[in-house]
Structures are given as structure tokens and as C-alpha cells.
Amino acid sequence: MKKVFALMLALVMLLSVVACGSKTTETTTPKTETKTETKTETKTETKTETKTEAKVYKVAMICDSSISDGGWGAACYNAMIDAAKINGWETAYSDMIDQSAYYDTIVSYCDLGYDLIYAPGNQYSDAVLQAAEEYPEIAFALLNGAATTPEKAKNKNVTSLLPNAKQIGWIAGALAGLMTESGTIAFIGGMELDTTKAKYAGYAEAAAYVGEKAGKTVKTLDIVYSNSFSASDKGIEFAKAFIDQGADVFFGDASAVDSGARQAIDEANKAAGAVKIFDIAQPSDILGQNECIICSQVTDNSSLVSLSMQAVMNGTFGGEVIYGTLQNGALSAGRISDLVPAEIQTQYKAYLDEMVADTFMK
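Above: the chain's sequence. Below: its structure in C-alpha cell form.
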């Protein structure tokens, strides 16, 4: 029945762009052109030369959050778009899909002949591996996929794009440790993924280390999970609870849930008459989106997606992990708010330099 459903879904997507429930699908019009040029020479001989443009490759992204959530979903979608522009690919996406629909949505794009399926999250691993076994000719790029996932693909057509989660936590944690006045900071998780837990661990240890160097003790409250990337109301609820516990710097890995948390933080600051509670965003630079944001941890996922596309075109895709780190430029810190004092900005940048030089906390 799943296969029948997937085939029906593929036909619907091929014939028209339909908004059904919470799923959105966008497909770019193919750009294939054939040119015919005829040359007649003086010896009554006619030569016909036909030129056909190179294959136009297609990538589709599936996502369980919204591509306009101002967080994870938006950043991952923009990464695909940017990589596609660089490499001349066509794009499509389905967002706000339920976990039960991961596999069927992937298969619908496989049946439509997409060359690369891009799934931004480790939560898609099971569906990706199942589809990859059934469609050996199609490539699957799993952002934040586990390092062991590619070797599980029987057809060697799965690649994990893996930003260094601990370094992501460090980038946020170092600033949190410098900025906290209460000595209490917080972290909100979407789902209990290995990458989320690694970000939390890096955040907590960097904040504690930087705080100690500054002569203060910094405690990170226990992580909470919303079990969703779209429940902004959960973010509001969690942020209010953390603020009541004294947290004055936040970081998260929960997409729209983080947006809800920022809303609650802004409201608390407004009620207090001053911005004293801060948020560090990720994975794109969104300074100015909310008053409470003082910096963003930035992940250049477009570079990782672009490397996947190039491997597909070169026929070398699959069976590997492509890492993103501070050292290769895939990870960085974004712009810093004027709310951060100049001396703290200088200290923070020095810590970032240590991270790049691999001397941080050593």
C-alpha cells in the first residue's frame, strides 16, 4: 500500500503543484534546450550539427519544519537554493511533513526522477536508508546524519553531511559564558538526537570554561526537548520556565521552537524595561530578527550540499562523511550585537581564534 500511495503522490506532484494539508511542494521549470544549426558549403554538401545542452540535475528537500521558520528549516532550504544556483540544479521541496510521511515523500521524488534527495536531519535516517536500498541509482544526502549511516547503505548511495556539533556548541557557549550575569544559562532541544546532545555538551563545557577564566561559575540548566521543530508555543513555555530559574542566556536546536523562546525572552525584557536576557541563534546569521539575539552560530550548509552535488555530477557520490568544521570554514560566528560590550567582543573573538587553531580548552 505504501508503494501505491507513493506512486499516486508522484503523479500528483508531476501534474501540478498542490498545497495539501501542511505539505508544500515547489518545482522549478526544467531548462532543457536543443539547438540545430545547418551549414551549406559550396560543394552542394549539407552538414547538420545538433547540439543538446548537458543534463539538468534535480534536487529535492524534505523537511518536517517550515522553510520560513526563521531557523533550521529556513537555513537548510536556503543552503539547497544557494548550492543549486552555484551548480545549475533545479530544486523542489516538501516541508511540514509528519514523520509517518518521510518515506512516502522521499519515494515520490525518486519516482519523479530526482538525482539527489536532501534530508536535513538525523531523524530521516531510517526512511533514507530504506529508500536508498530501493533506488540504487539515486543519491541521498543526510545533513547531520551519523558518521556510521553511509556504511549502512547497501548501495553506497548515501552520504552524511556532518557539521561538527561540539564546535557548534563551543561557538555559542563561549559567548554565553562571557555574557551571563546570573551564572545560569539554558538550552532548548527539538528532538533527542545525537547531534543535539553534542551541541548541548559543547555549549555547557565552553560556557563553564570561559566563565571560570573570567572568575565566575556558569551552570547550564538541564536540556529540555519539545519533540517537535514547529511547536513555537513549547518554546514560549520552556523559555518562561528557564527565566524563572534565573537563565539569562539561551541557545537552542529546535527551529521554530527557538523562535517561540525568543518571543518570550523579548517579552520578559520589555517588561523589565531593558535587554538583560539574551539569545544566541543558529544555524544562520539572523542578528536583528529579535532584540534579544546577540550573535548567531553560522553553519555554511550550502558548501556541504554543493560538495554532494558535485560528487553526483562527477559520479563519485556516496559511502562517505563530509565534515564541516571551524577549520575548513563551514562553521563560524555571525555578527555580534552592540549589546555585547567591546571588551567582551574582543575576548570572544580571541576564543574563536583558539577554536580555529585547535587550542581551545587545552
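Residues 1-5, 14-50 have pLDDT under 50 and may be disordered.
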